[in-house]
Amino acid sequence: MTGIEVGVVAVILMLALIYFGMHISIALMLASFIAISTLRSPELATRMVAAAANDSLSSYLYGVVPLFVLMGMLVVISGVGRDTFDVFQWLTRKIRGGLGVATVGANAIFASITGISVASAAVFTKVAVPEMRRHGYTPKFAVGVVAGSSVLGMLIPPSLLMIVYGVLAEQSVGRMFIAGIIPGILLAVIFCVVILLLPYLHPRFIMQDKSTLAQEESAEVEETPLSLFLKLVPILGLMTLVLGGLYSGFFTPTEAGGVGAFGALLLALMKRRLSPAKLYQVLGETGHVAVSILFLILAASLYSRMLALTGFPMTIAQWVTAMDLTAYHFLALYLLVIILMGCIIDPVSIMLIVLPIVLPIAQFFGMDMIWFGVITVVAVEIGLITPPFGISVYTVKAALNDKTVPVMEIFKGVAPFFFCMLAVLLILVLFPVLSTYLAYRY
């Protein structure tokens, strides 16, 4: 067999193993090991596994993964999510559909610290859904807002997906973070606009009856402006410390993660939310999340080396260029594949599988790698809310623990936000400056 044939078989084998239930990282490593053994020898394949483990995880940059995960977990424990929601609920109390807007706003602020969409979905399912249902919102809208706005956690910096892309594409993680600011704000604003329009365009989708709409508008949060401001101070202080230090160049991304984790620890201790048992739980969950991501990166490193050895990516690049496709034709095909894969595979795995193949093609077309990374992140985020996988949807379902709200109802509720994300993706494709302006300015 030629190298190209081995590469094709390896990719097909890997996808088949994932389809039949094998863990993605194991499937990547197994398919890569078999392909390298076929092309060269089992001894070389074994050495390449060891080299991939050493080279891919020995970098100082990878310390950012567990540090930002730890920071996000500590922020969740500290109760900052509820405090942030209380502030936005008070700010939007006079607006029709205000609690939906409050959920998006609180999620956007929360995302700027956690960087994990699943954490946002879990927190605001507990905080926002009961409050919205109490004020007459339909269950599908209440859970749809939470699941839809949770995707902001992967776009607004710091973002684990931005870290993964930066490493795979050999781009500055700090620059990737900055590039996500305008797209993240744009997505949050469009979410809010749609929520404000829904009571007029489709009132039965958002509210159970008209009387509850008046009840919502007259609802008051029993807080003073001063107490609400004090609730917002901790998370704003942590944001300023981490993101300000990062964007000013005072911290590297890894240092910013360390400072943020320490700040979140102090915040949890000051709020007296961190008992020894909870600290042990947080460290355990951080370890599980970080190790799973790092193991995926290790497997993807071996997968990339295998593909390079077979020459498969370059052959695909030559095949695409021989078809006389324009850059936008390639981009449309690429984004379609990413969105379809998001229906069955988690975002990190999609990036690890696809990027080693498509990055050479994107570079051939002269695409800006920062812009390409932003639209990639938005495209894979769509998979968080699309059936049948929709990890954010299933996170909301698990956190809600309510048999009266089936999974299909959550998917119906998240539909408007799915179309919002498609619209934002199109805008970012047509106007690359939205992704690159801040990245190259600072």
Describe this structure as you would to a colleague.
The chain has one domain (3-441). It has 23 helices and no strands. Helix 4 runs antiparallel to helix 16 (276-310) and helix 20 packs antiparallel against helix 22 (407-430). It is 79% helix and 0% strand. The longest helix has 35 residues, at 276-310. Mean pLDDT is 82; it is low at 211-221. Pfam families: DctM. GO terms for molecular function: transmembrane transporter activity.
Q: Total strand count, please?
A: 0
Round the mean pLDDT to the nearest integer and report it: 82
Structural class: mainly alpha
Radius of gyration: 22 Å
Subunit structure: The complex comprises the extracytoplasmic solute receptor protein and the two transmembrane proteins.
Family: Belongs to the TRAP transporter large permease family.
InterPro entries: DctM, TRAP_DctM
Subcellular location: Cell inner membrane
